[in-house]
Write a structure and sequence with these properties.
The structure is a homodimer. Helices cover 32% and strands 41% of the residues of chain A. Chain A is of the alpha+beta class. Chain A has a single domain, classed as Translation Initiation Factor IF3 (2-Layer Sandwich).
């Protein structure tokens, strides 16, 4: 799967690892970071967002949410894309 | 867990069952139906939305998405709330 700039694809690692990855991108100057979860990792993507929200509070907000499905290995998988926006 | 009017809580049943439940509510006159998924059922809630979108096409749209966490049995669980809106 293509990884776009400022997109964190949630997969095998811990929730904490992905949350830290997003926070690092924000600290490095990114205004927005997309958290992507596919298939069974959709729930984990939401966990990652909640952990970031816990840590940064009003410093971030949920910008937009996209939902859809994509094909992988001939199977149709749902995905979610959570856009985290920095708030000043 | 409280079940509000026009809210379908995704849990043990098949994706098809929940999709049918939402479509039935829309056919009975509901303008909006919330699909709720908690914890490991978050991904299934997204599957339900995608199936409804497949079946009804431009007849429905994703109104809004809420994300958060709630306590259950002293554990913190993420949830997602997908609002399906009828389009005319």
């Amino acid at each position: 799967m293509d990884k776009k700039p400022n997109e964190v694809l949630v997969s095998m690692k811990n929730v904490e690892d992905y949350a830290l990855e997003v926070i690092t991108l924000l600290n490095q100057g990114a205004q927005e970071v997309d958290i992507k979860g596919v298939g069974r990792d959709i729930g984990k993507a939401v966990d990652v967002f909640n952990m970031i929200k816990d840590k940064l509070g009003n410093g971030v907000e949920l910008g937009s949410v996209s939902i859809g499905s994509e094909s992988r290995d001939k199977k149709r998988l749902s995905f979610i894309l959570l856009r985290v926006k920095k708030v000043y």
